[in-house]
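Q: Hi! First time doing this. I have a protein sequence and I read that you can turn it into a structure. Is that right? Here it is:
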Amino acid sequence: MVETQQATDEIVLNVPLRDARVVSRTRKADTAIEELRRFIARHTRTERGKIWIDNKVNEKVWERGKKKVPGKLTVKVVKLQDGTVEVIMP
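A: Yes, that's right. Below is the predicted 3D structure, encoded as structure tokens:
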């Protein structure tokens, strides 16, 4: 999706997912994705609805199952001209 539109800004962020570890066991991966969206929205100053998360990032969060999420995740954030934000693996 990056190839079709011109990127205006690219950064690499370490996203802490510690808050996802304190919820119930069956909701940890779901909460980790929401924490990822919240963190990216805050650091890129964009709405949560305009954030597109790549499938590889989602697979990395769900890699060890629903109950064991990583403590942090390194992602590459690409902000496009139309205001959408893509989250991909570096």
